[in-house]
Amino acid sequence: MELPGALPLGELAAAFATLPVFPLFDLAYYIVSVLYLKYEPGAVEMSRRSPFASWLCAMLHCFGSYILADLLLGESPLHYFSNHSSVVLATAVWYLIFFCPMNLFYKCVSFLPMKLVFVAMKEVVRVRKIAAGVHHAHHHGWFVMMATGWVKGSGVALMSNFEQLLRGVWRPETNEILHMSFPTKASLYGTLLFTLQQTHWLPIAEANLIFFFTMFMIVCKVFMTATHSHASPFAPIEDFICPVFFGSVASGHASHHHDHHGASHDVSHPPPPPAKSKEELNEGTRKRKAKKAE
Amino acid sequence: MELPGALPLGELAAAFATLPVFPLFDLAYYIVSVLYLKYEPGAVEMSRRSPFASWLCAMLHCFGSYILADLLLGESPLHYFSNHSSVVLATAVWYLIFFCPMNLFYKCVSFLPMKLVFVAMKEVVRVRKIAAGVHHAHHHGWFVMMATGWVKGSGVALMSNFEQLLRGVWRPETNEILHMSFPTKASLYGTLLFTLQQTHWLPIAEANLIFFFTMFMIVCKVFMTATHSHASPFAPIEDFICPVFFGSVASGHASHHHDHHGASHDVSHPPPPPAKSKEELNEGTRKRKAKKAE
Amino acid sequence: MELPGALPLGELAAAFATLPVFPLFDLAYYIVSVLYLKYEPGAVEMSRRSPFASWLCAMLHCFGSYILADLLLGESPLHYFSNHSSVVLATAVWYLIFFCPMNLFYKCVSFLPMKLVFVAMKEVVRVRKIAAGVHHAHHHGWFVMMATGWVKGSGVALMSNFEQLLRGVWRPETNEILHMSFPTKASLYGTLLFTLQQTHWLPIAEANLIFFFTMFMIVCKVFMTATHSHASPFAPIEDFICPVFFGSVASGHASHHHDHHGASHDVSHPPPPPAKSKEELNEGTRKRKAKKAE
């Protein structure tokens, strides 16, 4: 949508959309990703005992989006690893965060003002990846476009069960699709918007959409990181729409809106046990008996 | 095998083999698949709490065969999702079965006579998929042909562990290869027959094989669904052949012939614990000590 | 590196590198692989109850390297199964080891002097696979070359969690990357050497590298098999280098140098629980609280 008075905004958005992400924004992406890996219980221990496994986990955190997108499109999951500079940069970030003498690098990057800057820069990369993913899968149709954009935005979160398995951790009771964290859910909505834009159902230029959605993501993530807030900006809309389309949402729903990185530590807020209505219990028992006999 | 007196049968089989499966037979396939998803413990709860995860499970149930076949052949696992009509139809079936007001649609399709019709139509699709899978992989050789046909016929059952993982359920002690349900085993035998036919070792026209094997599958599945029977039609032959080639089959073997969909509910019939002979126990201990030292 | 006086050695290495691995060396590879499958607890039981699952496990053990390499390069994981002779040979080995009357074949091949010959021949195949894998991925860049060579050398070990899952066993607390067995670690170092050689950073002819690395692997594996030894030949170097680059290695490190096939039986030597320093405990708690709030 190009209004004559919005030309400066259009030019700003266009310039923003073509800003090169390598090396600075990618560097911020790697820093935030490896920081979150370091927060995981046992990650530091693992880096001492099994540095190779630790490095591999860091690579999954940094390049998970590319790996998943390539898997979905039937290409080599290692395709992105041909970009030696990116891999070397991510390796350097991993090494400095885990092994820098006196933990100096870690202390610098986790200093809150610095961290907020990196978090904001990471969102720039995330939105670019969603747009690129949707664009790359353009000729495959709607569903493939949306899936590709989604995994590009969510990254390692969508393979969290298996990334944890690599670290010797196994939590099958939850996964990022069953209980979506904010970045994963935002990526899902974002990929829908970018798909609508690509198929000309949303009358907005791609650069403008990238700009506005990035601003939205930056504001949300910086706010959530700075205030240690749980609240999802989508909750009001979802709590209005979901009961209409999908029946009553259980009261425990709101407590699940927390960042993926908190999910693995959420020992004090486990997903509430499924509360079955009497009708569902009877129905389930009857059907199970029927199925068992089939 | 074309006998002059069997021309009408040959024509019937040829017409049957070219019957378009979309939309009616595919619709029946989706209905039965999503019905079985609904029977799973916690599935209704999941549809309320995490509708997206529920939809994704339904897509795995409806299109698992295509996803697995594409994975095995090194193609994009989302390739079939370019067929928008099929995905929209399956989505509509999922929505109606889980969210139709007063559960109306579910009650209609699970009314036994209706359900038997859908079950029969699903088998038409299954056999067509096996034939198409074997045909598609023709130039890759015997083993790839058989594998492709098998996964096309078995569908989501072969990835049941991971489909359950998506629902937050993890049962590693069993899987569809270790304890085959009737559809999976029938697909295995079917893919063998179709491979033999494709490589001209079985002197029968493809259309006739499709016809006869479909009739066999329809009769078996309709009978098993209507009578809630466990008995596998393969048991007599297997109980004769297997001891010859593979040694004595443990007495618990017969109890494993139940439909995949019952497997996950089979809490009262867990696979019997491995009964080791004294010789195997000694041998195992001796070898484990040797291996530990290597 | 070709010195005039080393021409005989160069010719020997060249002849060695072009020695056809099929059928004799491949046969030895299959025998050792299926032997190790038979050692697994419950494997014999599984072969009687679910012969198809047992056969599939055997195929994973024999062809796991090809499957993994093809997955990493985005090709069909069943690509190697077009080689009918290899699959039939491996199937015959599986059948004879599990079902030969009076266990005759098993007793022959596990007779220690015979077994040592087979183990040596298996190492010839392993090193060839590493070299071939690095060569095949040459145009993809360093990291893809190393990854491909590594999975070709390690084989089924790298997918051990999922191979065990097929047998109904699930041990998520360990995996081959977290606690590397000798063959996996040797394959990792080997792939590094072959990658350096391919990219001309290591001034040695490929044939000579194949020869010397194979001799090294044969000596190590034959010694470890014959003496039931745990000791890894890499331990002295690693215990010197790792503390320099990766901080202090926990004292439990040395006990993890055992062959993969012993790993699954290593019930008396579980990985020591992570010993966190007080600083790490405090840091971890503080960060988890911060992350939970994000």
Automatic annotation (TrEMBL), chains A, B, C:
One of its GO terms (molecular function) is identical protein binding. Residues 276-285 have a biased composition (Basic and acidic residues). It is found in: Nucleus membrane; Sarcoplasmic reticulum membrane. Pfam families: TRIC. It is a multi-pass membrane protein. Residues 256-294 are annotated as: Disordered. Homotrimer; conformation seems to be controled by binding to diacylglycerol (DAG). This is Trimeric intracellular cation channel type A. It comes from Eudromia elegans.
